[in-house]
Design a protein that fits this description.
The chain is of the alpha/beta class. It has a single domain (3-125, 135-151, 164-214, 258-274), classed as Class I glutamine amidotransferase (GATase) domain (Rossmann fold). The protein has ten helices and nine strands. It has a nine-stranded mixed β-sheet, sandwiched between helices. Strand 3, helix 3 (78-95) and strand 4 form a beta-alpha-beta unit.
Length: 280
């Protein structure tokens, strides 16, 4: 069988709880573009985790778990238990030597925060104010070596939209899991606050970001240029923040570059490792 006779199967874990969002559109767009650019037959299935308690099995090649609204701290709901069980199941599957072809997982924002809580890697707390807009993030020494971020500058630019933050990484827990901290939020020398963790490689196959790597500059620009959206952002965050965002969304080396690199690189890596020859 050639690699192209078999579909590359991706599960999208929808964590939006029915809330309107741009993330799902962006993720589907990236998956479709990946299939076209790599000439790979790709199929995806969406699982509504929070509303319908849907969780994918281990019969997919790659998994993308989205951002979503609300406090990531668990309160004992059934969907939370299912999601945490899914995280552990992927880890356990990949840990078995007989499972030569591993399962690859990308965790975005809310999903990333929940994984940090579940694996006790860091503190997750409410921010003093919402982080919203486009920001630079800085690679750590591990981040500078990670293939996911190779093609990005240091710092690189991201879209952030969150009320919660991951801080105070627990090095013992990182070491026990084999996790690596990949990047931190922008350096603010005059702010006496812990810098938030912005990306973690949880394992060779599992990686996640606090920010939204799926955000497409073109779509966001169209969205934020609408009068009502502009007014809402200016009222909430000020005119300077709005103008900076528009400038960064128009810059091909900022948000467009991050969108073009991170999830496509994750997918390419997952595809290559899934369909490599048996004795490569």
């Amino acid at each position: 069988m050639t690699t192209h006779e078999k579909h590359f199967r991706i599960a999208i874990l929808d964590m939006y709880n029915g809330h309107p969002n741009e993330g799902m559109r962006c993720i589907k767009k990236i998956i479709a573009a990946f299939g076209e650019q790599e000439s790979v037959p790709v199929e995806f299935t969406v699982f509504d985790v929070r509303q319908k308690l849907e969780i994918p099995g281990m019969d997919f090649d790659a998994y993308i778990s989205t951002g979503g609204p609300g406090n990531p701290a668990p309160v004992g709901e059934a969907w939370e238990k299912k999601f945490f069980g899914f995280l552990d199941k992927i880890l356990a599957y990949n840990a078995k030597r007989q499972n030569r072809i591993k399962k690859h997982l990308f965790l975005i924002c809310h999903s990333f925060q929940m994984a940090c809580i579940h694996w006790q890697l860091a503190s997750v707390s409410k921010r003093r104010k919402t982080s919203f807009g486009t920001f630079p993030v800085h690679k750590t020494s591990s981040g500078r070596k990670d293939p996911l971020l190779n093609a990005l500058s240091d710092p690189f630019w991201i879209v952030d939209s969150r009320d919660f933050q991951v801080t105070l990484p627990n090095q013992f827990a990182f070491d026990a899991l084999g996790a690596k901290l990949l990047c931190l939020e922008k350096i603010r020398p005059h702010v006496p606050l812990e810098r938030a963790v912005m990306a973690i490689r949880f394992s060779s196959e599992i990686v996640g970001t606090q920010f939204h790597p799926e955000a497409d500059a073109e779509g966001m620009l169209r969205y934020f240029l609408k009068d009502d959206k502009k007014e809402a952002i200016v009222n909430a965050h000020g005119e300077q923040k709005y103008n900076d965002m528009i400038e960064h969304l128009n810059d091909p080396d900022k948000i467009s570059m991050t969108e073009a690199v991170i999830i496509p690189t994750f997918l390419k890596n997952a595809f290559n490792k899934t369909f490599q020859p048996a004795y490569a």
